[in-house]
């Protein structure tokens, strides 16, 4: 019994530690504009164009306010004609996150008023089994990294305050959180 419980706790810890490493790519639809009536009818086509790659498991995040916009997933015919003959999915409580579950073409538009006709529509193609990208990681040149020159440090704290130093390593925190979770489970 105890061995099985310990195995389950260990599994939970491994999943908690590894989860950030296996997360898919999130595409914020429309970039800084979000999901809104665009400045031109080809705005979302341009946003989705190369070098952006959509992969299986990626997420599309449609940032919008409920009541002002919505997201309909439709077939190509409804997309081309801005009709709602056979909608696949409808989302009205923004923001909406849509998971790309397989390869193929995906069609979305906002069905409020004339939003679709004005260009609030998106067609993407998922062509990769691997995580997608939004193009180049850095569109600028990074300066070479140099180590800072250490400066002399004079401590003004007494010995008691040294023992109450805060943990500031971001890579240490997930491990500590998992360990604390495991202790709580065992207790």
Automatic annotation (TrEMBL):
InterPro entries: Cupredoxin (IPR008972), Phytocyanin-like (IPR039391), Phytocyanin_dom (IPR003245)
Residues of the signal peptide: 1-24
Keyword Transcription applies: no
GO terms assigned for molecular function: electron transfer activity
Gene3D superfamilies given in the database record: Cupredoxins - blue copper proteins
CC annotations in GO: plasma membrane
Domain Phytocyanin intervals: 25-128
PANTHER family cross-referenced by the UniProt entry: BLUE COPPER PROTEIN, OS05G0570900 PROTEIN
Protein name per its UniProtKB record: Phytocyanin domain-containing protein
Classification of source organism: Eukaryota, Viridiplantae, Streptophyta, Embryophyta, Tracheophyta
